[in-house]
Amino acid sequence: MHSFAGPILLATDLSARGDRALDRAILLARQFDTSVIALHVIESQSRALLTSQPSVTQRESQARRGLLRDLEDLDVDVDVVVRCGEPVRLLRQAAEENACSLIVAGVARDETLGRILLGTTVERLVRESLAPVLVVKRRARQPYRNAVVASDFSEASRPALRAALSLLPVSGLTLFHAFDLPGNRRDDLNSKGFQRTAEEAAAQFLEDMPELHGGEKPKIQVAAGLAERVLIAYAEQTDCDLLVTGTHGSTGLVRTAIGSVADALMEKAPCDVLVVRQPRR
Fold first, then answer.
1. What pTM was computed for the model?
2. Are the beta carbons of 85 and 41 closer than 8 angstroms?
3. Tell me, what CATH number does 42's domain have?
4. Which has the closest alpha carbon to 36: 24, 19, 18, 51?
5. Inter-axis angle of helices 53-71 and 19-32, nearest 10
6. Does 118 share its domain with 183?
7. pLDDT digits (tens, 9 = 90+) for 253-266
8. What CA–CA distance (Å, rounded) separates 264 from 273?
9. Of 241, 147, 163, 145, which Cα lies nearest the Cα of 209?
10. Which of 19, 142, 213, 216 is at a distance of 20 to 30 A from 116, taking alpha carbons?
11. What's the domain range around 24?
12. What is the pLDDT of residues 53-98, one digit of tens each?
């Protein structure tokens, strides 16, 4: 099972909107009794625009002071780091060197001087990071109560469910599968047939999870339609706290999650999104 025992890496852009990611990282660190590494990256191209070395040093100092001010008087161990360079490379490096269990990022859109999140940085990070990436959208007022886990029932989608099981009790999880009927088979009879087949596959998928043997299992939800559309609609209807997806798989949603579907989820999902990459073999 995926464990969140390692440090949590907070990718921060120092914006007010980024406080949501900071608050969630602190809440998770308390929940799992671990530490936080707060990393702010000043992009290399931004540094090149600064005319003198003292200006660069001053900007780094300002960023460090701002982070320390935001993090003072916390009951969580926080290490503040400010770096200059290419954001995705430095975030990946920090996560790997410190064996981070999770990278937490916000959704700030302002990518002006020194502000790196969300946009291309987080999208690239999701594609390249070995650690799960949590994109925070909502204010973190309490631990996650429920989550929807997207699955195509492939082995590649199991890490996402294991990560969700580490974060939440089984009673708060829903396994979600989307299927898109062929154009010539969109009648009720065929839809019900596909749904029954998908529900049976979901039940077998859960039965094959050793972590769930002899205990409660997540709820199963199957829906017909374009994957990201029905998934986002379900998240809105149920007011779920967290949407969890893998990076790739054999068919359906998870196969394309790292591309257009993942981008759509990060862009349009009404809740936080956790993307979990399949471990290297």
1. 0.85
2. yes
3. 3.40.50.620
4. 24
5. 50
6. no
7. 444 443 456 677 88
8. 11
9. 163
10. 142
11. 8-136
12. 446 677 777 777 877 787 777 889 999 888 888 889 999 999 999 9
